[in-house]
Write a sequence for this structure.
């Protein structure tokens, strides 16, 4: 014990001060590291907007001076194609997944493109996944 105390007393004071300062600096850096880590994990939307090209404005409807020739009531609008978050999948897989899922849910958008199902492996995989997952969710309800 006396040897250890004797060895400690032989260490110059400037080294002890540097050790205390470096410890204080390390402690002061912890909140900065935490904030940086949290902000680094926060989702951003700017990256999505930069990667997408701006879409052109929708075309304006043609102007016509002739009166409408038909007075029959217009047919109901066709349902729009649903949107699923399938980021990272190929367009063929996305189409297949939507078609399969909508078929399982028995919505008007549900249809299997038989030609693509036979010829396109990605469409077939997407359709099968969509049909099985959405069909399972429907059965659980």
């Amino acid at each position: 014990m006396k040897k250890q105390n004797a060895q400690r007393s032989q260490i110059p004071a400037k080294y002890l001060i540097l050790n205390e300062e470096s410890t204080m600096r390390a402690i002061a850096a912890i909140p900065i590291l935490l904030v940086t880590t949290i902000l680094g994990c926060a989702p951003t939307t700017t990256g999505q907007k930069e990667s997408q090209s701006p879409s052109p404005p929708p075309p304006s409807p043609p102007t016509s001076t002739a009166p409408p020739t038909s007075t029959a009531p217009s047919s109901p609008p066709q349902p729009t194609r649903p949107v699923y978050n399938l980021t990272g999948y190929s367009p063929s897989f996305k189409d297949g997944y939507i078609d399969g899922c909508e078929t399982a849910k028995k919505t008007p958008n549900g249809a299997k493109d038989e030609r693509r199902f036979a010829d396109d492996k990605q469409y077939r995989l997407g359709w099968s996944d969509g049909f099985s997952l959405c069909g399972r969710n429907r059965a659980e309800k």
